[in-house]
Amino acid sequence: MIKTIKKLLIPLSLSSLTGCDMTGLVVKDEGKIVYTFTWTTILILFVATIIILWLIRYYIKNAK
Amino acid sequence: MQNKKEAAYFHANKWKHLLLLDYNYILISLLALLIAIFFHELGHYLAAFYYDLNPIFGINLGTIYVKTNFLDLRTHEIISHAGPIMNLVVASFALILLYIRGYGCNMHGYYSLTLFLIPMTNLLVALFSLILFPFSGIL
Question: Which chain B residues contact residue A34 at CB under 8 A?
Answer without folding.
Answer: 65-67
